[in-house]
Amino acid sequence: MSKIKTTSTNFANKQALADECSEVYAANIIGGQWALAICSWLINGKLRFGELRKRLPNITERMLTLQLQKLEENKILKRTVYPEVPPRVEYELTPIGYELKPIIEQLENWGKKHKELVFLP
Predict the structure, then answer these.
(1) Which of 78, 8, 76 is nearest to 46 (CA)?
(2) pLDDT category, 6, cuts 50, 70, 90?
(3) Could you point out which of 11, 34, 43, 100 has its C-alpha 20 to 30 Å from the C-alpha of 107?
(4) Positive or negative torsion for Cα 13, 15, 16, 21
């Protein structure tokens, strides 16, 4: 996983804003297309890595791995490894992750309305 320079002015500004504003803090955790898309798929239940990969065909394996690790570190999802041969790994949202469901649904509704507004003929 790439390390962010914690000495940069940009990082300091971003951190200060996140410390002061809970909305920015939340957006930093689930922001970006992949984290939100992963959470959207996991709202419906547990999925394995390969199943997520199929649902997100444009994501690389490395990016999916990095995003899953980030979401796990932030306690949005949990990773369960089953002691089988070959090993089976499942990802599912944690209770705080499932609290994103109404937010994701609202984002979906807002996105549809905004598309209609912006892309009117």
Answers:
(1) 78
(2) low
(3) 11
(4) positive
Q: Which fold has domain 31-118?
A: Arc Repressor Mutant, subunit A (1.10.10)
Confidence at residue 35, expressed as pLDDT on a 0 to 100 scale: 96
Cite the beta strand spans of the chain per DSSP E: 47-48, 77-82, 88-93
Beta carbons of 63 and 1 less than 8 angstroms apart: no
Tell me if 76 sits within 8 A of 39, measured CB to CB: yes
Q: What is the pLDDT of residues 55-101, one digit of tens each?
A: 999 999 999 999 999 999 999 999 999 999 988 999 999 999 999 99
- Report whether 104 contacts 39 (CB < 8 A): yes
Domain boundaries, given as residue ranges, for the chain? 31-118
- Indicate the Cα dihedral angle 40, 43, 49, 52, nearest 10°: -40
d(CA 12, CA 20): 12
